[in-house]
Amino acid sequence: MPLAYRLSRIFRNFVLSHCKKKRTMVRERKKRIYRKRIPYGMQNFEDVIERDCYYVDKTPFIEEIEDSNMYFFYIRPRRFGKSLTLSMLENYYDINKKDKFDEIFGKLYIGENPTPEHNSYLIIHLNFAIIVGDLNDYKHGMDNYCRTQFNYFVDVYSHLLPEGTKEGLNQQEDAVNQLNYLCTQSKKSGQKIYLFIDEYDHFTNQILAHKEHEQRYRTQTHGEGYLRKFFDTIKGAAGDTLARVFVTGVSPVTMDDLTSGFNIGTNYSLAPEFNEMTGFTEDEVRDMLGYYSSVLPFNHSVDELIKVMKPWYDNYCFAEEEYGKTTMYNSVMVLNFLDKYIRNNYDIPKNMVESNVRIDYDKVRMLIRHDKEFTHDASIIQQLVTQGFVTGKLVENFPAERINDPDNFLSLLFYFGMVTIDGDYKGATKFIIPNEVVRDQMYTYLLDTYKENDLTYDSFNKGKLESQLAYDGNYKAYFEFIADSLKRYSSQRDKQKGEAFVHGFTLAMTSQNQFYRPISELDNDGGYADIFLSPLCDIYKDMVDSYIIELKYCKTNTTDEQLQVLFKEASAQICRYADSDIVKESVKTTKLHKLVVIYRGTEMVMCEEVTEE
Fold first, then answer.
1. Is pLDDT at 462 greater than 60 in this prediction?
2. What is the CA radius of gyration of the chain?
3. Are residues 599 and 550 in contact, defined by beta-carbon separation less than 8 angstroms?
4. Cα of 369 vs its chain's centroid, Å
5. Which of these, 391, 123, 398, lies nearest to 251 by C-alpha position?
6. d(CA 182, CA 149)
C-alpha cells in the first residue's frame, strides 16, 4: 500500500474522530439543567412570574400596607427592590388583571390569602426618573411625560371610563389639569384610582450637584410651584377618587418640602413593620442559595457562600426598633452575585461590587462637594473611616436648605444606604458603614477628594506592586508608593488633620488593592489594630501573603529615640492583634506579616516587619 495512501487514511480517520468529538461536545453543551431564572435587573412583576423566575415572596406585606394609612411614603436606597415591589402591588390591585389573579399570585402567600381590595382599582403609574428636563424646564418635561402616561391610562381603561374621556383629556393644558380631569371622569363611572409614584425625588440630584439650583428647586416645591400644585391636586382628590397613593424615593428631602401641601401622607420608611419589605433577610438568601445548590453543581456550600456574601451585601437596618433582630441584604447585589457565580462556572466572582451601585456614590459625592469647605461632612466621613462609627440623631425628613446640618447630612447618608443603624451610644443613635460595598464607595470618595489636589499614579505599576505584595511578600515597595503619593499630594489642610489624614489616605489606597479587603480598627480581644489586609483567598486561591499593619503617627519634631520607643510599643500591640481568632481564621493558608508603619508628619520614616523572638 503506497505511503501517500496510508497517510491520507490516517489523516481522514483523525479528522473524522475529531469531528465526532466536537459534535459530542456540542451536544453536551446544549444540555441544560432546568432552574428558575434569576430575576436580576427585572422590574416587571408579571414577567418575573410568567418567566418562572425565583421570587422572594414579599406579598404578606400587602396586608400590612392595607392596614396602614391610605397615602403611603416609602424611602429606600437605590437598587433595593422598590420598583419590583411597586410592580407587584400594581398587578395585585389592577382591575384589568382580575382574570389573571390565580395565574400571577396563585403560588404566593397573598394568592392563598387575598384581601377584599385585590383587583379593584384603576392604576396610574408614574416614574419621575423618566421625566426629561431639568429644574429650568421641569414643567415641560413633566407635562410631556404625564401626557403619555395618562393617555395610556385612558386606553387600557376605556371600557370603564365615560365615552369621550380621551378627547377631553387631550384638551387639558398640562399634567395638573389632566390629573384632575381623570379623577373627575373616574368618579363619574364609579371607579377608584390607585396612584403609584416611583422616584418622586429624582430631580433632587440637581440641587445636590449645584448650589445655584436651590432657588429653582424652591420655586418648584413651594407656594405656587408646579410640582407643589401637582401634589396639591393629589391631596384634593384623596379620599374621593384617589383611594390610595404609594410614593417611593431615596431621599426625604423633597418629601419635606412637598408634604406640607400633601399633609395627609404618612412616612413609613422607619416603621419596624416594613423593615423587611424590600431587600432580603438572611433566611431568604439561604433559601435561595439552597434552591439553586440543589439543582446546580455548586462548588460551595450555602454556609460558605453566606460567609463570602455577608460582609459585602448584608447589615442594613431601617428601623431602630429592629436593631439586633434582623439585618437586610441588598437584594439586587445578591442577585447579581448569584448570577455571576453561576455563569462563572460556580467560582466566586472576582468583582464583588456591582457596577451600577456607583450611582448612589456619585450623588453622595455631589452632596459633599456642595459644601466646598467640607466642614461637618468631611468630619463625618473621616470619622466613619478612622473610628468605624459616628453618632447622631436620625431625622425623618428635612428641607433642602438644611441639607448640610450634621444630623440631616448623617440621616441623608442613612437613606442613601451609606450608613446603617448599629444601636445606641451615649444617648445617641450609633451609625456604621454597613458593608464592604459601601466601604469601597467611601474610600473611593476619599481618593477623589485627594485627586482634587492632582493625585495621579501609574495604574500599571501600582498593579504590579499590589501583585508583589500578595505573592512575593514585597511590602516595602507598596507602602513606599503610598507614602510617596501621600507626601506629594497632601494639602496644607490635610497636614493639619494629622493622624486622621494619614490613616484615611492609607485606607483609601489599600482599598483599591484587588487582592485584599482592608479592615480598619479591627475589634479584637486584645484591642484595635489599625489596618488588617484580609486576603481574598476565595477569589485568589494561590495568594501567599497577608498583612496586619499598626499605623503610627507622630509630629515632625519627634526624635529618633522617641521613634524607637513608639516602634517597640507598636510591636507589642501588633503581636497581640495577630493572635486573635478572626485574624487566624481570615489568613487561611497565607503567611501573615506583622508590619509597623510610622509617619513623622507626612513622611514615612519606618516600615518594618515584626518578628517574634
1. yes
2. 29
3. no
4. 21
5. 398
6. 12
Long-range contacts, stretch 492-501, CB < 8 angstroms, 24+ apart: 494/450, 494/453, 494/602, 495/601, 495/602, 497/382, 498/553, 498/555, 499/553, 500/382, 500/386, 501/382, 501/602
Residue 155 contacts residue 120 (beta carbons within 8 Å): no
For 125, phi then psi, to 5°, come to -115, 125
C-alpha cell of residue 37: 431564572
Q: What 8-state DSSP symbol labels residue 316?
A: B
The residue type found at 382 is Q
- Higher per-residue confidence, 368 vs 595: 595
* 373 — pLDDT class (breaks 50, 70, 90): very low
Question: Which residues lie below 8 Å from residue 8, measured CB to CB, with a gap of 6+?
Answer: none
Phi/psi of residue 243, nearest 5 degrees: -75, -35
CB 363 within 8 A of CB 208: yes
* Rounded Cα–Cα distance for residues 81 and 188 (Å): 36
Provide the β-strand partners of residue 114.
none
State the residue for C-alpha cell 462563572. Answer: 344
Q: Which of 3-17, 505-519, 530-544 has the lowest mean pLDDT?
A: 3-17
Cell triple for 171: 384638551
DSSP 394: -
Closest listed residue to residue 276, CA positions, set 329, 197, 334: 329
**550 membership: H or E segment, kind and range:** strand 545-554
Name residues whose C-beta falls within 8 Å of residue 211's C-beta, 6 or more positions apart in sequence: 370
Q: What does the pLDDT read at residue 409?
A: 84
Packed helices 331-343 and 282-295: angle between N→C axes, nearest 10 degrees: 20
> Rounded CA gap, 443 and 533, in Å?
15
Amino acid in position 139? K
Q: Which residues contact 28 (CB under 8 A, 6 or more apart)?
A: none
Nearest Cα neighbor of 71 from 174, 200, 160, 181 is 200
d(CA 203, CA 227): 11
Rounded to an integer, what distance in angstroms lies between the CA atom of residue 441 and that of residue 416?
A: 12
Are the CB atoms for 147 and 178 separated by under 8 Å? Answer: yes
Three-state DSSP at 162 gives: coil
Average pLDDT taken over every residue of the chain: 84
Mean pLDDT of 543-572: 92
Which span out of 99-113, 263-277, 408-422 was modeled with the highest average pLDDT?
A: 99-113
Q: For residue 222, give the 3-state DSSP assignment.
A: coil
| Pairing label, strands 591-600, 603-609 | antiparallel
Count of other CB atoms within 10 angstroms of residue 506: 24
- Please list the residues that pair with 534 across neighbouring strands: 517
pLDDT of residue 252: 80
Half-sphere exposure of 586 (CA within 13 A, CB side): 23
Sign of the Cα torsion 579, 584, 587, 588 reads: positive
Dihedral, CA atoms, 67, 69, 73, 79, nearest 10 degrees? 10
Q: Is the pLDDT of residue 162 over 90?
A: yes
pTM of the model: 0.84
Count other C-beta atoms under 10 Å from residue 282's C-beta.
Answer: 15
- Which DSSP helix (H) or strand (E) runs through 466? helix 459-471
Strands (E), 93-163: 122-127
Contacts 24+ apart (CB under 8 A), 482-487: 482/506, 482/509, 482/510, 483/599, 483/603, 483/604, 483/607, 485/455, 485/457, 485/509, 486/602, 486/604, 487/602, 487/603, 487/604
Cell of 327: 439585618
CB 376 within 8 A of CB 409: yes
